[in-house]
Task: inverse folding
């Protein structure tokens, strides 16, 4: 642990987490970016901000996830558009910045990706669907998510 800027921080394999302050509200920021795809090397995307009040995972889906009229999410988890292409390791409750999430993009070129927050169902391993529910927003109905255009070269 180190003291940076007057706050206590813990360094994780995925980014920097504020250990002193646990956020009250789940939040995620995902920005447009260009990433290199190289043979035999992991490809990552960067999530600039993720606030997980109860801990959990940052999950990257291929495609745009829109909220439906019931406050749910219009997406599937199988092959094709909207499938999960990567996720973080388990993250303790806290604020994270600059998270590098390993992904397996379905090709090169510009793609729409959605970053979503998921809670852990208690087993410490990512499993969705069927476990690890979405964080939901109190401001807007539906899952906490952000959409970005990512170009894979």
Result:
């Amino acid at each position: 642990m180190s003291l940076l800027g007057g706050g206590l921080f813990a360094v994780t394999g995925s980014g920097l987490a504020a250990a002193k302050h646990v956020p009250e509200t789940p939040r995620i920021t995902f920005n447009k970016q260009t990433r290199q795809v190289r043979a035999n090397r992991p490809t990552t995307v960067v999530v600039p901000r993720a606030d997980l009040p109860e801990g959990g995972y940052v999950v990257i889906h291929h495609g745009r996830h829109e909220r439906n009229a019931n406050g749910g999410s219009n997406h599937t988890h199988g092959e094709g558009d909207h499938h999960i292409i990567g996720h973080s390791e388990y993250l303790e409750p806290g604020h994270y910045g600059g998270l590098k999430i390993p992904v397996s993009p379905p090709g090169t070129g510009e793609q729409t990706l959605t970053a979503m927050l998921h809670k852990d169902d208690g087993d410490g391993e990512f499993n969705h669907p069927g476990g690890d529910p979405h964080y939901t927003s109190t401001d807007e109905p539906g899952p906490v998510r952000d959409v970005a255009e990512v170009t894979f070269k």
About this structure: Residues 1-13, 69-81 have pLDDT under 50 and may be disordered. The first strand starts at residue 2 and ends at 4. DSSP finds no helices and 13 strands in the chain. The two ends are 36 Å apart (CA to CA).
